Amino acid sequence: MIVKHLYQRTIIHSGKQVKAWYFWYYDEDKKQIRKSCGSNGKPCLTKKQAEIFLANINDNDLIPTKDSVTFNDFCRGMFDLNSKYLLKCKNKGRIITEKTRKMKEHNLKMILEKFGNLPVDKVSSTDFDNWLLEFDRSNSWRNSFLETANDVYKELYAYHLIDRLPVFERFKVPIKSTKGILYPTEITSLFPHDEKALCSIWNKDNGDPEFYTYMFATMFFLLLTTGMRSGEIQALQSNQFLAPDTIILNAMISDGERVDHLKKGTEDNKKWRVVILPDRAVQMLEHLKTIQVKCSDYVFEYHGKPVSGNYLNKRFKYCLNNQGINTDERNLSIHSLRFTNDTMSLKEISKKDLKLMLGHTQERMEDYYDRSTALDHLPELMANKDKINSLWT
Q1: Most CB within 10 Å of its CB: which of 92, 168, 329, 381?
Q2: This prediction's pTM
Q3: Which parts of the chain have pLDDT scores under 50?
């Protein structure tokens, strides 16, 4: 006898939000199957109705066949935190970051709203294409749904619920032009030594206290001269300074939360690294301490919170456009500061040291992070201090 367990979910029924009853049980493969109580599109809204519904179900009707298994039956909760599917991916070495998990969870929710009640072998890749084309969204957005659907179909195939895997042809994504960089003459004009001139460039007339303008100018200069990513500078706290001119990057802001690894880092390989600051950046940070008002340990705090990446990028582009630098035509964004650092530094610093400071992972850079800690490289990186100062005076 199949043991069935009742539970409630909030659904939209007849345009209203209601609590409906569902049940779950384990199939022969010990996979949890979830189904709704009710029939003909009418959910059970009381526990008594649900109990009567379960009492009238024949266990044979619950044995899955290709024709009876719907997408709701099979993959609801597939990307929930700590789901069996994610546990399997983890143990097989497939890394799914929290950001990706949330994206796939969202995608699956929309997929189930469209196809959830249909049998798994009755929906084709063309059905997905036609559905996605109904949305006025980018092809990159559509492709993310195809990737989620592909994950689902691979699982269906593994459980022998479909005879073959559908072929999902990706939507064409235009090739973006190369990310722009700043020219040396522009760097000189954007970061003058005179404080008043500097603030006039990075000011945004929005009624903020004046020290915020100097704070943003300092942030942009640090991004330029260290090659930090925006999420890394957002997360920067005072305890990350090993010395006034040395920072260990061991955290970033991701999805609004501070996490203890860097981009593409994992629990086992956090991708921490060390960056060396030019003397001018150190001086700007010291001056900022004397004028800014803040209430947390974050080095850069905007109205009581870490600066958001979206606002940082918008402010950067706003100020550049005000200086006559067309960010759209040049494909310039906050990340261009990192690209500029890479381009400029290659003239003075070895590729090996530059990769350590920027955190690139090409050409087996993973080996560096596996074999040693970020601090092990500090002496060899400090040997570049004079070169860094000459670049960013």
Answers
A1: 381
A2: 0.60
A3: 361-372
